[in-house]
Design goal:
Blueprint: H1 3-31, H2 55-64, E1 70-86, E2 89-95, E3 103-109, E4 123-132, E5 137-138, E6 144-145, E7 152-155, E8 170-173, E9 176-178, E10 186-187
Parallel strand pairs: 3-7
Antiparallel strand pairs: 1-2, 1-4, 2-3, 4-7, 4-8, 5-6, 8-9, 9-10
């Protein structure tokens, strides 16, 4: 192949491959799950559809609400500590603000599918039920839940069966979606919320 043909095909291939990320990004955007909001809650603007990221609101709740305050959270952050597995649940801490104390404990029920092994530095996006957890609280069958080491948790970050009384949620760790209704992770490249953060 002569130099002119080689240059021509190099330009054609460069054009084709430079366009793929844009196509992939648009397709990816459509596959990131909706974070269902509680119906008609004031903090969601009355929109039962999709809850936007609310890291700052979650941090406000953490510092200003009583133990066992509940709401809906949609947060993103970096894993800063991994706690031991407890009763089939992954527990780890993510930083959701700029200060080292602005953390939230993420609790994931392994019965809803495998997730990547959480490690410090991994990026997480979680949609689920927020609870201020500054003291022990009663659980089912006389069980007592200890206070969170982070003072707050987000859980039900997976599919919720209709009998549970919870909205479904999800969690992405480094672009891998966990908590699907079929009990297996769904590989994704990244959330659109992380696009500018990498």
């Amino acid at each position: 192949m002569n130099g002119a043909k080689l240059q021509h095909w190099s330009l054609v291939l460069a054009f084709i491959f430079s366009s793929v990320p844009a196509w992939a990004a648009e397709a990816e955007k459509a596959t990131v799950p909706n974070c269902p909001a509680y119906s008609l809650k004031a903090e969601n603007g009355g929109d039962p559809g999709s809850l936007p990221l609310n890291n700052s609101e979650v941090l406000k709740w953490k510092s200003s609400t009583a133990n066992q305050f509940h709401s809906r959270g949609h947060v993103q952050g970096e894993i800063v500590h991994v706690y031991p597995d407890r009763n089939g649940h992954e527990h780890f801490s993510i930083r959701v603000g700029g200060d080292v104390s602005e953390t939230l404990e993420v609790v994931y029920n392994q019965a809803f599918g495998a997730i990547p092994d959480p490690k410090e530095g991994m990026l997480v996006e979680a949609c689920g039920d927020y609870i201020t957890s500054t003291g022990a609280s009663p659980g089912p069958n006389g069980q007592v839940y200890p206070a969170s080491p982070d003072g707050a948790i987000i859980h039900w970050i997976h599919f919720a069966p209709s009998s549970s009384g919870h909205h479904s949620g999800y969690m992405m760790i480094d672009g891998v979606l966990g908590g699907s209704p079929h009990g297996r992770p769904e590989p994704k490249r990244s959330s659109p919320h992380f696009r500018n953060n990498r």
